[in-house]
């Protein structure tokens, strides 16, 4: 593994970002786009396990996996730092561009985002269309559903009463930074009004949206709403994949089906 750290300016300070570049087993062309992985709300670079490498091998593209500030081995939140309701927008518009610039990534990228990372991918694609060649989003959030908030409340209880905290601590230097940074915002009394539906029409690249039928954090309305807000257009299709017997983590519940679908989608639209 080639895990490294790089410093970027963010929120009026310098933060350290844990990241790893991946190479497919078959090698890549010099002009191949980079596949950037954006983790879930409690995720990190390590929590992807071997899935990014498996996908890079299948599609024949290099990859970049990183932990957002507040997660993994990246700089945790400061003790007095509270994220706002726009925290996913700030990741999409501030952190990701700063990271790509710091790593000298100038060519367009493919985004592969899961859950909160899927929402961040959608926002980045909408706001920085010239930087994004395509996007794949798993279990993204485009609005807040009471259905999903029930599971987030249950996660809070589990964090306080079960071994969830110790299991997450294997992946985060400051596990409380990671958990409360995510949970406090999602359960903020104003967060039910959060939505990114109006921003989706600006996405100009091919888009594949994937949802597990049994996802406890969101209904199929999340990806069906994407297709309504941003229907296919010439050269920039919107495709949906609804996976049966699949929860919130298609990369763990249905990895073979997901890799096959993503490989075919990227192959058609590279």
UniProtKB/TrEMBL annotation:
Domain of life: Bacteria
Hydrolase as UniProt keyword: yes
Pfam family, one: Abhydrolase_6
Occurrences of domain AB hydrolase-1 (ranges): 35-261
InterPro entries assigned: AB_hydrolase_1, AB_hydrolase_fold, AB_hydrolase_sf
GO molecular function: hydrolase activity
Organism: Leptothrix discophora
Protein name as catalogued: Alpha/beta hydrolase
Keyword terms: Hydrolase
SUPFAM superfamilies xrefs: alpha/beta-Hydrolases
